[in-house]
Amino acid sequence: MSTEDQANEISSEARDRKSTPSLTDPARLQSGDGAAGPITLFFILGLAASLVLGWVVFPQLLYSSKEQPIQFNHALHNELVDDGCESCHFFREDGTYSGVPKLAQCIDCHEEVQGESPEEEKFVAQFVEKGREVPWLVYSRQPDCVFFSHVAHVKMGKMDCVTCHGHIGESESLKTYQANRITGISRDIWGKNIAGLKKNSWDRMKMDDCSECHQRENVNQNSVQTLKGGCFVCHK
Description:
Elements (H helix, E strand, L loop, with lengths): L2 H17 L6 H6 L4 H27 E4 L7 H7 L22 H8 L7 H11 L21 H7 L5 H4 L11 E4 L6 H4 L16 H10 L7 H6 L7
Antiparallel strand pairs: 1-2
């Protein structure tokens, strides 16, 4: 092959390489040709799938749904009592909090069926007549390592029940109880939103919610009560 032929072949190969766009050629990437298009599409689809799994599917798998043993009508009972929430959820003489009413307290009014409610008939037949406590599923029950003083917050802090419990006193039935399959704790503690976002003060009951309220209300962090037990004021 002559020198002139070799020069022509090299020139031809150079033109071919120049005319073939590189994988990193900006024009090629912009047009979506080659591998960039599928990679971008795969990334977008993967991101969308991850968001769906994280925000929709995972919460459904993480929590189990349970119905309350009795559909309790708070609104009806609030109409019949004089002291609102404290008629049933009261403070004892020694300052301790009664919490969810025991059967002995309910029997004062429900030893026999008083109305035509199927739920009351169920309550009397299955629990009152058999002397069984109602196994209520408590939405606001904290982990065993946490201690919450109702006296300190309601009596001393003058907090309203709605601040933590919302408008449950106006409800005619109880919502489905959702329990974390791993911890057993109610979803009301973590909150409905998996990211922890909330609109109302009662949407969740985590430690940072307590801290946020204490800071907003200017709770004295150097009080004797706060310092004498340190962490153990709220944590066992």
